[in-house]
Input
Amino acid sequence: MSLQDSNKPRNEHDGAMQRRSPRGFAAMDPKRQREIASLGGRAAHQSGHAHEFTSDEARAAGRKRHARSGPAEQR
Output
């Protein structure tokens, strides 16, 4: 297969690109997505794998973020 062949659409409709329907997580109701994500976050905290920022870490992250802000990004 040449490099040119890899740029061609891969479907059986003469190269016509079709929109794909969202599947899995993307197809779910946003409320259900939040519920699932919340369960994952709770499980991570219970198992001790979740990172919790200390005040010092949060302060340093804020300083780092605002240090790279240019005049156009300031409010």
About this structure: The mean pLDDT is 79. The two ends are 53 Å apart (CA to CA). The chain has three helices and no strands.
